[in-house]
Design brief:
The chain is α+β, with helices and mostly antiparallel strands. The protein contains 15 helices and 15 strands. The protein has helices at 6-18, 103-107, 183-199, 216-227, 233-245, 271-274, 277-288, 291-309, 337-357, 363-381, 402-411, 416-428, 438-450, 454-470, 505-513, and strands at 24-28, 32-38, 46-53, 61-62, 64-85, 93-100, 124-129, 135-137, 142-152, 158-169, 213-215, 256-260, 263-268, 382-383, 388-389. Strands 1, 2, 3, 4, 5, 6, 7, 8, 9 and 10 form a ten-stranded antiparallel beta sheet that branches. A three-stranded antiparallel beta sheet has the order 11-12-13. Strand 2 (32-38) and strand 3 (46-53) form a beta hairpin. Helix 3 packs across helix 15 (505-513), helix 9 runs parallel beside helix 11 and helix 11 packs across helix 13. The longest helix is centred in the C-terminal third of the chain and has 21 residues, at 337-357. It is globular, with a radius of gyration of 24 Å. It starts with 5 loop residues before the first helix and ends with a helix. Bound molecules: alpha-L-rhamnopyranose. Alpha-L-rhamnopyranose binds next to helix 4. Residues 206, 211, 215, 217-218, 326, 478, 502 line the site of alpha-L-rhamnopyranose (RAM).
C-alpha cells in the first residue's frame, strides 16, 4: 500500500469544504405554453410550437391537465409552484414533472430509454402528497428549458396558481470580452458563457443534467473560459482540492469525482485526465498568479507523470494497463495510446514551464525527457507521404485521426515544419477520422492556435460551434456531429447532455484571438 498523499488528503478535503461557493439565485418564470411537433426540417426532427401565453395556464380549475412550458432559456435550478383546490382531497395529490434540455429530449418517452447508463439521469419526478400542498417545492435540482407538468384528480378540481424556477449557479458576474464580438461570434461567446455558468455549481460540473460530476479533462477547458469570463479562481481551487482529496492509494488523482451532498467519491482512473493537473496549474498561474496554490499542488502533478512513465516502454510505446485512456467518445474505433503518450509529453512541457515560473528545479530534465520521447514518436509514426502522424496499433486508412494529430501538435512532438504540414494535410484530408465531441474539437482548435493558424481556427469555431448555434443550441452540447443529428455514445440520444462543460471553449478562443 502506498498512501502517497495520505497526510495531505484530509487537509485538502477540509480546505475544499471551507471553500464551498456562495451560490447566486434568480427567479425565472415560464414564457409560454408549448407543444412539440415532428418537423424534418429542424435539428433532430422536433420543433417547439407556442400554444398560449404562460399566464393563461393559471386561469381555470381543471380535472386533469398536462401543462407544457418553455422557460425561454436553459436553467439549472429548483421548481416551485402553487396549487389551489375546489374542495378537500379524499385521495393523495399526485404531480408528475418532466424536465428536458432540448426539443428532442422533450418529445421522448423517458420510460422507453434504451441507454446503458442509469435511467435515473432522465429528469422525471413523481411526487405524492397525502396533505394537499398549497405550494410544491421540488428539492432536486434540474437542468432544463422545457417542463411538462401533469396534475389532476377525478374527485376534485385543481388550479395551478403560479410556477417558477429558482435558478442557481456559483458563477458571478461575467467580464465583457476584451474585443467587441459581433454577429455569430457574439452569439457563440454568449452561449459558451451560459454553458459554463450552468456547469458552475458546487464544483465545476461536466453537465448539470448528466454526469453532474467533476471531470478533470472537462475542468481543464472550463478553467480557461472561466479565466476570461467569471474569474472564479476559488471554484477551481476547491474543485482541485476535492479531487485531490480522493486520490487513489498510489497517488493517481481520479478522472472524476461525484459529489452528492457531502458524499464525495472517486469514480475512474483516467491517466489522460490525470496528466492534465500540471497544465491546469500552469493555466491557473498564468491567469491568477496563485503561486502558493501551484506550489502546493505541484507534487500531485508530478506524481501523475511518474505513474504514467512506468507504462512507457524503452522504444517509446505504451504498455497496456487497466485504465481508461480517454481521448474522445470514439472508443470502438480510436486507439488512444498515441494521443495518450502525447498528453504525457504535453504535461511534461506545460509543467516544466510552470516550474520555471515558480523557480522550482528540475524543469530542464523534464523538457529533455519530452524531447527524447518526441524523437522516438517522430521516427516511429511520421508518414512522409500523407504528411500526418500515424496512430499506434492502427493500420491502413485507420491510422489517421484528427485526435492524434491534435495531441501531437499540442505536445510539440513533430518538428515545427512537420507540425504545419500536419495541420494543412489534416484539414484537407477527406478520409481522416473526425472528432465526435466538442472536447476533441476544442483541442484541435487549440493545436491550430499553437501553430498561429488563427484564421483557420476561427473558421472552425464558426463552423462547428456556429453550427450548433444555427441548429438552435441554448447551451453547447456534449456530443455534436453535424452529419448525424442523433449521434450518442450512450446507446440512446435522450441520454446526451445538452449543456456540457467541455463544449464552452469556443468563447475563450474568440475572446483570445478575434482582433
Ligand atoms: C462522459 C462525459 C464527461 C467526460 C467523460 C470522459 O462521462 O461526457 O464530460 O469527461 O465522459
Amino acid at each position: 500500500m502506498n498512501q502517497i498523499f495520505y497526510p495531505q488528503q484530509a487537509l485538502w478535503a477540509e480546505k475544499a469544504l471551507a471553500m464551498a461557493p456562495e451560490m447566486n439565485y434568480r427567479t425565472v418564470y415560464p414564457q409560454s405554453q408549448i407543444e412539440w411537433v415532428k418537423d424534418d426540417s429542424v435539428w433532430q426532427g422536433i420543433a417547439i410550437k407556442k400554444t398560449a401565453p404562460a399566464e393563461e395556464a393559471f386561469n381555470d380549475f381543471f380535472q386533469f391537465r398536462t401543462f407544457s412550458f418553455d422557460f425561454g432559456e436553459h436553467l439549472v435550478g429548483r421548481l416551485e409552484f402553487e396549487l389551489e383546490y375546489d374542495r378537500y382531497n379524499d385521495a393523495p395529490v399526485r404531480v408528475i414533472a418532466k424536465f428536458a434540455e432540448t426539443p428532442y429530449e422533450f418529445s421522448c418517452d423517458f420510460t422507453a430509454c434504451q441507454s446503458h447508463l442509469d435511467h435515473s439521469w432522465m429528469q422525471l419526478e413523481t411526487k405524492i402528497f397525502d396533505e394537499a400542498p398549497a405550494i410544491v417545492k421540488l428539492e432536486r435540482r434540474y437542468a432544463f428549458r422545457y417542463l411538462e407538468l401533469k396534475l389532476g384528480s377525478p374527485n376534485y378540481h385543481t388550479r395551478l396558481k403560479s410556477i417558477r424556477v429558482i435558478a442557481e449557479t456559483s458563477a458571478g458576474e461575467c467580464m465583457p470580452s476584451p474585443v467587441k464580438l459581433t454577429g455569430l461570434d457574439a452569439e457563440i461567446d454568449r452561449i459558451s458563457n451560459i454553458t459554463l455558468r450552468d456547469c458552475m455549481q458546487s464544483v465545476f460540473e461536466d453537465g448539470p443534467k448528466r454526469d453532474r460530476r467533476l471531470w478533470i479533462g472537462d475542468m481543464w477547458q472550463q478553467a480557461k473560459v472561466n479565466g476570461c469570463t467569471f474569474r472564479n479562481y476559488e471554484l477551481l481551487e476547491r474543485s482541485l482540492y476535492l479531487a485531490a482529496s480522493q486520490s487513489y492509494e498510489d497517488g493517481m488523482i481520479p478522472g472524476s469525482i461525484v459529489l452528492f451532498g457531502n458524499n464525495c467519491h472517486a469514480c475512474n482512473r483516467v491517466p489522460t485526465y490525470a496528466l492534465l493537473v500540471g497544465p491546469i496549474l500552469h493555466d491557473h498561474y498564468n491567469f491568477y498568479q496563485r503561486r502558493e496554490f501551484c506550489l502546493e499542488m505541484l507534487p500531485l502533478a508530478l506524481r501523475q507523470q511518474e505513474l504514467f512513465r512506468e507504462a512507457i516502454n524503452p522504444d517509446g510505446t505504451l504498455a497496456p494497463r487497466e485504465w481508461w485512456l480517454f481521448i474522445d467518445h470514439d472508443q470502438a474505433w480510436l486507439k488512444p495510446q498515441t494521443a495518450a503518450l502525447c498528453s504525457f509529453v504535453y504535461s511534461l512541457r506545460e509543467t516544466a514551464e510552470l516550474m520555471k515560473k515558480l523557480s522550482v528545479d528540475g524543469y530542464e530534465a523534464m523538457l529533455a525527457e519530452a524531447d527524447e520521447l518526441s524523437g522516438k514518436m517522430r521516427s516511429r509514426l511520421w508518414d512522409a507521404d500523407r504528411k500526418l502522424m500515424r496512430t499506434d496499433g492502427q493500420s491502413g486508412e485507420e491510422s489517421f485521426s484528427w485526435a492524434t494529430q491534435a495531441w501531437m501538435i499540442m505536445a510539440g512532438v513533430p518538428t515545427a515544419e512537420q507540425a504545419l504540414q500536419i495541420w494543412q494535410s489534416a484539414r484537407q484530408d477527406k478520409l481522416i477520422r473526425q472528432g465526435r465531441t466538442p472536447f476533441i474539437w476544442g483541442t484541435i482548435a487549440e493545436a491550430g492556435c499553437k501553430l498561429g493558424q488563427i484564421d483557420d481556427v476561427l473558421d472552425l469555431v464558426r463552423y462547428y460551434w456556429g453550427g450548433m448555434v444555427q441548429r438552435g443550441a441554448d447551451t453547447f452540447w456534449e456530443v455534436y456531429r453535424p452529419e448525424e443529428a442523433l449521434f450518442t455514445s450512450y446507446s440512446d440520444p435522450m441520454m446526451n447532455s445538452a449543456c456540457h462543460a467541455w463544449s464552452c471553449l469556443a468563447g475563450y478562443l474568440l475572446r483570445k484571438y478575434v482582433k
